[in-house]
Amino acid sequence: xxxxxxxxxxxxxxLVEGVLEVxxxxxxxxxxxxxxxxxxxxxxxxxxxAPATKNAGKGGVNLISLLPQSMREQMxxxxxxxxxxxxxxxxxxANLLQSGMPLTVALNSMTHLESPGIPAEVSRDLKTEVTEGxxxxxxxxxxxxxxxxxxxxMVKAGESSGSLVQVLRRMASHFQQFAEVQAKFKSAMIYxxxxxxxxxxxxAFFMFFMMPRFTEIFNGFNIQLPLPTRALMRASHWFLDYWxxxxxxxxxxxxxxKRFQTSAAGARKLDEWRMKAPVxxxxxxxxxxxxxxxxxxxxxxxxVPVLTALKITEQVMSNSLxxxxxxxxxxxxxxxxxxxxxxxxxxxxxxxxxDLVRIGEETGDVPGALNNLADTYEGELQxxxxxxxxxxxxxxxxxxAVIVGFLLLSILLPMFNLISHISTGGGGH
Length: 429
Hints:
- There is one protein chain.
- This protein has three domains: 3-44; 81-147, no CATH class; 170-424, Type II secretion system (T2SS), domain F (Receptor-associated Protein, Up-down Bundle), CATH 1.20.81.
- It is 71% helix and 5% strand.
- It has helices at 25-34, 69-76, 83-98, 103-110, 120-131, 136-141, 149-161, 164-219, 227-262, 264-276, 280-301, 306-316, 320-334, 340-345, 351-363, 366-423; strands at 3-9, 15-21, 38-44.
- A three-stranded antiparallel β-sheet has the order 2-1-3, covered by helices on one side.
- Strand 1 (3-9) and strand 2 form a beta hairpin.
- The chain starts with a strand and ends in a 6-residue tail after the last helix.
């Protein structure tokens, strides 16, 4: 009978290893779970056991295989789930495990639960991998489109410490907090975006439809048109005759901007500008510092080694300046320096971050210091978003009033001249 070696943990967290003589892996997992243990890994003792080939002997023609490779990848790859969707999935899994379900049973139940953005096949694949003896983190590592390095390493830390449920709950809270910050930032941008779109729509409607009709009217009378009207008429003629050129220029500018944005120097310059921009710069800084402290604090709190945590935080950060600073901090920590030293040398992080990290290193509670900083920055971010919105709204309203006023003035001035011309007996049609 085949032999299977296993690693498992008791509910107390104690690691247990052993060998079982059972027909297959499923039987080994069932026996381990009946013993009240949490299986971490199950492997066939016999070396060279060939795994069963999946999907062998299936016939038929796969039409997708006839497409170019780039198109096949776009069509077959899974969509990255949103933060809120990850939070929901993680909370559901934590609740099932908290209720006492074995991991395989919990993953099987997840296939029947409503998890927006994460298809049931993800849970089904995880269950298959775990049933075959792999750890949950190893199974998740096979689906990088769904589970990030942060997610996988935190699950691995939870498996190693025997506190997977607690780690999952902390991770769900982490994703939920980030999702709320994103939602608040987007909601703050909705009103300005709507005002800008309405303003552009009014200008386009006026230039393409209204101004040509008024031009026909004014040309029928021998009157001197005011400067604003003449300028607007020329602009309207130009838009009507060369609208395609305007579209082409916009497309070219967008392509050039995208290329600049994707280059290392361009991304760095844009991130530097965002952090220094008036009004918006403060919001960007608070968001970046909050993301850094929350991510690193959550990883360290869940037992991820500091070098691994810094590497994952570097990958998570979207700001290239902070990304470079974190990379240099990881190199410095590798050389034996404290975390606070390279953060201070970068000249990017506020003194508050440097001081609290240094205190956390002295007291042995860096995760607590980082999470306190994250709470502080997230609170300040909400206030700054509100202030920014209150500042932008009146500026946009004034700008819209100026534009509409100019358009009305360009029409009303020649209308007054026309009425005066007619009343004084001037010629016309």
